[in-house]
Design goal:
The structure is a single chain. By secondary structure, the chain is of the alpha+beta class. It has a single domain, classed as Alpha-Beta Plaits (2-Layer Sandwich). 31% of the residues lie in helices and 33% in strands. It is built from four helices and five strands. A five-stranded mixed beta sheet has the order 2-3-1-4-5, covered by helices on one side. The radius of gyration is 16 Å and the shape is globular.
Length: 126
Amino acid sequence: MTEIRFLNIDLDLEYDTNINLLVDELGESCTIMRSEIIEGIHHASFETGELEIENIIQEYANIVERLSPSARKLWIGCTKKSFNFGFESGTKPKNFHASLSGNAVSSIFKLGGGIDFTIYPHTNKQ
């Protein structure tokens, strides 16, 4: 039996022009998971080193607050700012619960972000 579990929160950004300055500044504090241009849209994804939901959101908020004015302008102009919650599916427990406090929701809102959920199938890692 495999357990359902929270994995991480990726920060996914999209912009219709180059956001290398923003990617570079976010990359000073986050792991850059991807940064590529597809059909004229710059897609970038990041992860923090935090493990708990509330701490991850707070870390992203702190990082964005420290952006330079030029990078902050790019942040504001992003057409997508998604906080993507990743979970691995499984067969137990009977139900799984993860929560997000009002403060965390407020932080995401203040950053102009949305919330996405991704459920990954369990894979046997050998």
